Description:
Order of helices and strands: EHHEEEHEEEEEHEEHEEEEH
Shape: globular
Helix content: 25-40%
Number of strands: 15
Structural class: alpha/beta
Radius of gyration: 18 Å
Distance between the termini: 38 Å
Strand order of the largest sheet: 1-12-10-8-4-5
Number of helices: 6
Amino acid sequence: xxxxxxxxxxxIQHKLGIMRSKETGSKDFRQLxxxxxxLMGYEITRDFPxxxxxxxxxxxxxxxxxxxxxxxxxxxxxxxxxxxxxxxxSLLPVAKVGHIGLYRNEETHKPVVYFCKLPxxxxxxxxxxxxxxxxxxxxxxxxxxxxxxxxxxxxxxMCLVAAPEGIRKVQEMHPDVDIFVAAVDDHLNExxxxxxxxxxxxxxxxxxK
Length: 209
């Protein structure tokens, strides 16, 4: 079974509280999401292995350390997942960025991919999938499935706020994918919104509501 990491760092919780307020406008919401994503990036990369490398400082030669053989990709789920990319790129500037856009057919309930653009060597990379809200888990599961179909084996899911229902679904369908979140909220309401949540992340990021 995959692990679920909940970030309880005071800075993350402080910023998340501001984001939850309905009084917070799009500009501040976007900025706070970028900042939280950067802070979460420290933890999501904590287990990356290091290797020694010989360098020379202005004073002398020494053995330093660098991340060992890790090729990274950040794949946001459109559209809200895009809001988490800049924060991660500030820490991981050499990471490649793909995009997955999908929706569910209301009759068949199967995922329909309307956009998928990934690095050509995606199967060789550690992939961080981003989506601020893990509600029912449907979109995340579908996106992870698309990545697995393309040969990806090392996938991590990074969300801002999750509902227990979404976590259970991802763990059931993809027990090999670790989940990283800033908060696990109480439940989903009848409209599949996370409670207490923060509303529609995409609308709040882009000011479309």
